[in-house]
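Run log, item B.
One chain of 394 residues. Sequence copied directly from the ordering sheet:
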Amino acid sequence: MKVHLKSNVYWVGKIDWELQSFHGDDYSINHGSSQNAYLIQEEKTILVDTVWTPNTTEFLDNLKKEIDLKDLDAIIVQHGEVDHSGSLPALMAERPDLPIYCTANGVKSLTGQFHHPEWDYRVVKTGDTLDVGNGKSLVFVEMPMLHWPDSMASYLTQDNILFSNDAFGQHFAVGELFNDKADQCLLMEEAIKYYANILTPFAPIAKRKLQEVISMDLTIDIIAPSHGVIWRDNPLQIVEKYVEWSDAYQEDQITIVYDTMWDGTKKLAHRLALEIAELSPDTVVKTYNVALTDKNDIITEVFKSRAIAVGSPTVGNDILSSVAGWLYFLKELKMKNKQAAVFGCYGWSGECTKVLREKLTEAGFSVVEPEARVNWVPTEDQLSEMKAIAQALV
C-alpha cells in the first residue's frame, strides 16, 4: 500500500498496530506505532528509509507492487537503527548495485550491523544535494545525536517536504497517517512522551540543531518523520513544541514517585501530595507507585514537572530495586533545572534517604534539605513532617 503525500511523493511504510515495546523493553508503546518509509517518483525514483526486519517481506512485496526494483535509482538511509534499516539487506540482495546515501557515521553503523562494506555508500554532509529530476533536489542536513551519531534529515525542494527522521515523531499508530486525522490529545501525549524518553538527553544538541534548521529559512509544507503521524496541518506546530521542550522545559507540576513494602512510605507519599495541594492549589500534583505504573509514562510526567519527590523504604542497607532501576533510567535522561525531595521508612539501618539523595544529585536534580526518614510506620506527627518538604518544593 502506498499513500499519497504530495506531487510524486508517497508513504510506503508499515503501521504496526501490535507493537508493544521498543528499544528492547525500554520504551512502552500504548497505541501502536509505525515505521515510515517514503518513495519519491520524479525523473529519478528514490526510496527514503525502509522498515524493521520483521516486516521486511511485507514491505518489499508492497514496494514491488508499486515499482520495479530495477527502476530504483537510490536509497536514502537517514539513520542506521534497524527500525529504519532492517529491510535494507533484503533490498540490497535484489539490487546490490543500489547507491546508498548516508552520513559518514551511517556507513559505520550499517557496516557494523550488516557487515557489507562492499555496498555502494555515497557519504553526504549538511548542504549536499541529490538531484531527483524535474528541477527538484534532496538537501541533506546532518542531525548527529538526534538520536544517534549517524542521524540526518532530508529536504525535498519545491515540494517543501522535510523527511525529519526520528525528530518530530511519536510511537503512535494512525491509520489515516496525517496529524489532522489523529486524536489531538493522544497525539500530543505521545509526542511529548517520545521526546521526554528518547530525546531529552540530547536537549542542548536539539536546541542548537533546531536553531540551525530555522536559520535555513526553509518553507516547510510537510514534516514526514520516521514514526507516527505525518505533519501536514500546520507542520511547524511540532517544531515550536520541540523548541519549547528543548529549553529545560517545565510546567507548574510536582510529581511524587515511590514504592513501598508495608505501606509506610506510601502513607508519606500520599500525605505529601495533600500538603502540596493545600499550599499551592494551582500546582498539578501527580503520585505514582513506580512498581505499578509504566516507567516511561512516569518519566513523561517528571519531564513536565518543576520538582519531584522520590520515596523508598530501606531494604538491605539500600533502596527498593524498583526505585533504584527507575532512578538509573532517570539519570540517563539528563534533565535540567529541576528540584527534588526524598522520603522513606525504615526498620533498622535507615539508609533510604541518603541513597535517594545521592542518586537524585547524580541525576542532575537539586535536592532540598527537608526530608522524611521515619522509623517503622509513620504516626500523625511524623506525617505532618511532610509539610516542610511541600514548602521547600512549592
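Observations after the first pass:
- Residues 184-199 form the longest helix (16 residues).
- DSSP finds 13 helices and 24 strands in the chain.
Flagged for discussion on Thursday.
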